[in-house]
Design brief:
Blueprint: H1 2-48, H2 54-58, H3 62-75, E1 79-83, E2 94-98, E3 101-108, E4 119-120, H4 122-135, E5 139-144, E6 147-148, H5 150-158, E7 164-168, H6 170-188
Length: 189
């Protein structure tokens, strides 16, 4: 009987330790969630005041970045923002209108573990231009949280005059966001 009692006590202690582990793990998850909500609230305050940085942008998921870019180009004066499914299309993420013309937008968000070192390359530009040429679209924008290779700028300058492509790198995105927010505040006042 003492062996059975000892086994029962051991099982009881194992169950107790397991439950304590579950409670502590859940407590840690709840603490992380509360902290995340607090950080998100602080970020929203900062963003609403027009302050955003590249870490904020790089912390977005790709879909969040794509939707953020939609709001961004809307603030730049573009309209009829349509987000294109990334499953069907790799050459454009957004289709919109600017000055009555169709515009294709490619959104490139790079994370720290990105193999391509935060850089839009000439192949990204050529994919966008190829889609534009195929569909008869002449205006395009590439927005990135990273850098843009010099070869991209050279390629864009070498295109026929009918093609107009804006290249907006991460540093410029942050600057333009602050400028757009400042203009919107002045309009509201």
């Amino acid at each position: 009987m003492s062996t059975l009692d000892s086994l029962g006590k051991n099982i009881f202690y194992l169950i107790l330790i397991f439950n304590a582990y579950i409670v502590l793990k859940n407590f840690t998850l709840v603490r992380r969630l509360i902290n995340s909500l607090y950080v998100s609230k602080e970020n929203l305050k900062r963003w609403k005041s027009g302050m955003i940085n590249l870490d904020d942008i790089n912390n977005l998921t790709f879909d969040e970045f794509k939707y953020w870019c939609g709001e961004f180009v809307s603030g730049m004066g573009y309209a009829n923002i349509i987000h294109v499914s990334s499953i069907k299309n790799e050459s454009k993420d957004i289709v919109c209108k600017g000055n009555g013309r169709t515009v294709y937008v490619k959104c490139e968000r790079y994370s720290d573990n990105s193999l391509n070192k935060f850089t839009v390359n000439i192949h990204d530009c050529k994919r966008l231009v190829g889609a534009m040429a195929h569909d008869g679209v002449c205006d395009g924008i590439i927005i990135t949280s990273g850098f843009i290779e010099e070869a991209c700028y050279e390629y864009v300058r070498s295109l026929q005059e009918k093609y107009k492509i804006k290249l907006i790198d991460g540093k410029r995105v942050v600057q333009l966001y602050a400028e757009l927010h400042s203009r919107q505040k002045k309009k509201a006042a």
